[in-house]
Protein: Sterol desaturase family protein
Amino acid sequence: MTTIPALLLSALAMTLIVGVRYLIVSGAFAFATNRRNPALYRGLRPQMRREIGWSLASAAIYGMPAGLLAWGWAHRGWTRVYTDIHAHPLWWWPVSVLLCLFAHDSWFYWTHRWMHTPRLFHAAHAVHHASRPPTAWAAMSFHPWESITGAVVIPALVLVVPMHWTALACVLTIMTLMGVTNHMGWEIFPRRLVEGPAGRWLITASHHQRHHEQYRCNYGLYFRVWDRLCGTDRGLGRFDEATDGQA
Ligand SMILES: [Zn+2]
Ligand SMILES: [Zn+2]
Structure:
């Protein structure tokens, strides 16, 4: 197959993978939320429809650079993704995962903070904050401008950071699960963890909830490091006890 149709096919395949992954994971957590507390998403159907629409558009934007890289990996030897686990020392596996998460978190923190400046907020980020309160479907509910900033991160990282394919799969799984659970409207992790020493550095729904309530704080994605260093961490939000059955 010539290059252009092969590239288009690869982008289409990646769009489908990202879109279907979103529908399955967000759908599963939305279902779990409904079982746990049927009142939590009551009255939010029009909002959830918008969240799904923006998220599927984001899937196409994420699919394009991912498709390009997947094609380049298969046909041109691009990317530092490796398949032989012994190509690098075994300790590199967890280090590469942490490095990738920290790099993604740093990119997210600064671009997110930038998108909270008034002009950019209206042009790029207001769509995400139109979810009030966000639901499990809001995980990829971004304006296309914002999606572009998110879509380039992992493709850029795999060009420079050597990663075993299972380490990359681990990063993508964490990215997907945290994106969904952070917007779900309730805390999935035990309070002992969220309010304990690990929770002082890790971001879960309780932390991101406060970002959606107060806007100009808690900008991070996985870690509270940048928020703490830059004085933008305002601690953990609490979920509405009236609507959250187990709060
Ligand atoms: Zn959010
Ligand atoms: Zn924001």
